[in-house]
Structure formats: C-alpha cells, structure tokens
C-alpha cells in the first residue's frame, strides 16, 4: 500500500485535474480550491465530486450564478434590502457566522433572483479570502486571480473555518413575502447551498420569530433537507438562547453584540464585492462549455 501523499501534493493534483477537466471552467481561485478540499476533509475523490457538482449547478442557473454585475442597481438594492453578510471573527469552534436580515418590509419590491445573485456574489468574493482576514479592502484587487498569478497553492488550512453558522432574522418576513418567492429560485438556492456549497453548514439559528412562524416553516420545509432542518434552532423567546451558541463578540450591535451594526458591515461588504467585480464577471472562472450530469449526486449533509 502506497504512503499517504501530502496536502500540498493533493492540492497540486487537484489543480491539474481542474485545468484538464472539460466539465469545469478554465480557472479557479486557489483559496476556493482549498475550501473545497477542506470541506471534504482532504478526500481527493470526494472533493472532485463536489467541485463538479458546484459548477454543474451554477451553469444550470446562470441568471443567478454567472450573469451578474456588482454595478447593477437592482442587485445592489437587493443586497441592502436583505442584509446578508459574514460577521467578523470566528467562534471558538472555528466556525464563520453569517447573518441575514430583511430591511425593506415591502413585499412588492421583493426580487428573489437579485437577492440570490447578491448573496452568491458575496460568498464567491469571501471564498477568495481566508477566514481570519478582517481588512478585506486592503488586500482585494479589482481583478481576477488566475492560476498563473498563484501557481503554488499554499497548503496551510488553519486560516479556513471548519464550517458556517447562519443566523436568520425573520422579524420582517410576512406570509406575503413567502408567497412572492419564486419556487424556481428557492429550489436553485437551496439545492446549491445543501449540495454544492464549499463549506459545511453547522447550524442555523432563526431569530425574532413572528407568530406565524409555523406557517412559514410549513411552506419552506419541502426545500430543506431533513439533516439541515434538524440543525435549525428557533429562538422564540428573545436572544439569550442565541448567546449560548454564538459569542457576543461576533454578534452585531443590533443583537446585543460587540461587533459593528449590520448596516455598517453591509456597506463595507458591498465595497469589497465591487473590488472583485472583474473576478465575479470573468467567465473563465465560472462558465462551463460542457456540463454532463455526474453519475451520482453528492450531498454535504
């Protein structure tokens, strides 16, 4: 039996495989490739499955994942109508925390495609950085990162999180908002998040639950895998129970934490997204000319 190869050698093999695979784009950011690898606990074959499925789903719904522009006013509006940003720092378990909150309460202005597009532009931007960096604007170039720019992949995995925690504030969501959601978009969004996301979801916390939360759950549950639903916590009696899971140092001022307000964090993140405009719009990083359904589907849960 051959000796186990090093992480650096595995990453080199993955890069070569990626470049030569006709079912994948021309290029991939090195940090993103590392995220796929870490998500699959260093298993080469399972990493390959996840990578292929990620780009397959992207190219099946290009109106969300590929045809995008940070300068588009509708996308920008959706980003600020529904604040959806990573919070600074990491939990003691080395998890990254993302927060979602609807700001614009008018369901008539809701745009599921633009909201999803804005969210995945944010995550695609974030996945090019490590999870320790806080001063993103100091290091984010307004250009795409190519394999030639970083031919040697850093094999240090310690700066990447071990997973994500999502906090979803549904105080301003009504049944009209749920009714106005596009089922196609909701299905594409949830399929990608549950099957192809390059980070493992560790927990989901639903806060500020309205009285109609049970009806909202009934409508959305068909799109949520049982494994994900089982890791979902509903906080119906204030936020004290949330503090048991997420340190106050990470939480924004809006929720009794020590971090800045969600509005301030969102404003900074939009600048970071704009700084990555070229990368986000470069088809060499996202577009696949040949997309064949893999023999078996992959699930992170």
UniProtKB/TrEMBL annotation:
SMART domains listed in its UniProt record: SEC14
Classification via Pfam families: CRAL_TRIO (PF00650)
GO molecular function, a single term: phosphatidylinositol bisphosphate binding
UniProt feature coiled coil, ranges: none
One of the record's GO cellular component terms: membrane
Domain CRAL-TRIO: 167-263
InterPro entries per record: CRAL-TRIO_dom, CRAL-TRIO_dom_sf, CRAL/TRIO_N_dom_sf
Signal peptide range: none
Name this protein carries in UniProt: Alpha-tocopherol transfer protein
Gene name of the record: 101899142
């Amino acid at each position: 039996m051959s000796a186990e190869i090093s992480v650096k050698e595995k990453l080199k093999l993955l890069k070569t495989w990626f470049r030569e695979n006709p079912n994948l784009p021309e290029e991939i950011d090195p940090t993103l490739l590392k995220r796929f690898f870490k998500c699959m606990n260093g298993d080469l074959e399972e990493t390959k499955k996840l990578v292929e499925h990620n780009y397959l789903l992207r190219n099946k719904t290009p109106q969300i994942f590929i045809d995008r522009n940070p300068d588009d006013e509708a996308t920008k509006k959706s980003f600020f109508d529904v604040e959806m940003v990573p919070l600074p720092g990491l939990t003691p378990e080395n998890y990254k925390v993302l927060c979602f909150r609807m700001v614009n309460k008018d369901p008539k202005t809701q745009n599921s495609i633009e909201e999803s597009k804005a969210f995945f532009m944010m995550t695609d931007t974030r996945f090019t950085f490590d999870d320790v960096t806080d001063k993103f604007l100091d290091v984010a170039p307004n250009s795409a990162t190519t394999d030639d720019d970083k031919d040697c992949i850093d094999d240090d995995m310690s700066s990447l999180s071990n997973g994500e925690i999502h906090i979803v504030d549904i105080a301003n969501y009504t049944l009209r908002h749920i009714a106005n959601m596009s089922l196609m978009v909701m299905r594409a969004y949830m399929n990608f998040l549950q099957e192809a996301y390059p980070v493992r979801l560790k927990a989901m916390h639903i806060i500020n639950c309205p009285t109609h939360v049970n009806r909202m759950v009934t409508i959305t549950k068909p799109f949520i895998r049982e494994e994900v639903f089982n890791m979902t916590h509903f906080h119906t009696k204030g936020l004290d129970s949330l503090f048991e899971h997420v340190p106050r140092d990470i939480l924004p001022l809006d929720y009794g934490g020590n971090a800045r307000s969600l509005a301030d964090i969102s404003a900074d993140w939009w600048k970071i997204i704009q700084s990555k405009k070229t990368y986000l719009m470069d088809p060499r990083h996202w577009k696949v000319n040949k997309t064949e359904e893999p023999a078996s589907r992959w699930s992170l849960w």
